[in-house]
Amino acid sequence: MANEQNHSGTELCLDAEHFHVDGRLQHIAFIMDGNGRWAKKRGMPREYGHSVGVKTFEKVIRYCGDIGIKVVTVYAFSTENWKRPEVEVKAIMKLFSDYLDIARKKAEENNLHVCFLGDQGIFPENVRNRMQALEQETRKYPLTLNIAVNYGGRDEIVHAVNTLIAEGKTTITEDDISTHLYTSHCPPPDLIVRTGAEQRLSNFLLWQAAYAEFYFCETLWPDMGDAEVRAACADFYGRKRRFGGV
Ligand code: FPP
Question: By CB distance 3.0 to 4.6 Å, which of 18, 67, 117, 221 could disulfide with 148?
Fold first, then answer.
């Protein structure tokens, strides 16, 4: 077992074999579900749940870095989430925009190359510019944080195929698709964690999830913490991954 200090100074007791040595668990993706229910249980508007959800997101990202996870992906806003009430959509977009203002500092503190997955065309120019600048300015950092925003798995595959057609391809391979997805810069997720007691993918990383392990928990996203992340990782290491072999 290796003992390490996390950012808050508390000692972590990590199983080196699991978390550091062979890098098997490189990429965790989170479906951050349950913000609305968490707020309702407290008699608060759903938007409040999302604002607490951003704080949880920051804590979880930091913890994943502390335990040696190289890539973290979060599902912040789907192509279908625009159907939510305007007040909620506006609140999430405001949280996202506020995060862009502080993201460079956070990325520096946590060694994160911040990348965005999804169709950015829908965002106002000033938001797009800030997203692109952040991606460029944080390229030097070794860990990757993918934020899926205006993201849909089906939309992503269609986008990849259309790009290939525009490039003149008449037949395509799996590799062609993989290298034209928004995630072409990183390995596919080893583990997909969904909080909030639902057990579905909701159009998240459809192509990349082909051999991912899944971990579903009842914890609502604002209550997600180090212990549940550890439980998910431990669960992952109890699985036998065969990738279609025996
Ligand atoms: C799912 O919970 C959560 C979302 C659709 C939005 C999550 C967005 C954030 C945490 C803010 C994004 C910003 C950054 C910077 C990452 P839900 O609303 O579906 O919860 P419910 O199932 O309880 O209704």
Answer: 117
Residue 220 is given by DSSP the state -
Q: Name the active-site residue from 3, 15, 22, 33.
A: 33
**What digits encode the pLDDT tens for the residues 115-174?**
999 999 999 999 999 999 999 999 999 999 999 999 999 999 999 999 999 999 999 999
The model's pTM is: 0.91
**How far does the centroid of ligand 1 lie from the alpha carbon of residue 50, in Å?**
5
Q: Is 35 a catalytic residue?
A: no
Contact (CB, 8 A) for 139 and 108:
no
Tokens, residue 195: 């909080």
For 85-110, how does the pLDDT look when each residue is reduced to its tens digit (9 = 90+)? 999 999 999 999 999 999 999 999 99
- The end-to-end CA distance of the chain, in Å, is 30
The helix (run of H) or strand (run of E) holding residue 58 is helix 46-66
CA 99 to ligand 1: nearest atom: 15
Ligand 1 pocket check for 54: Cβ under 6 Å: yes
Let me know if 81 is a catalytic residue.
yes
User: Is 197:224 a contact under the CB 8 Å cutoff?
Assistant: no
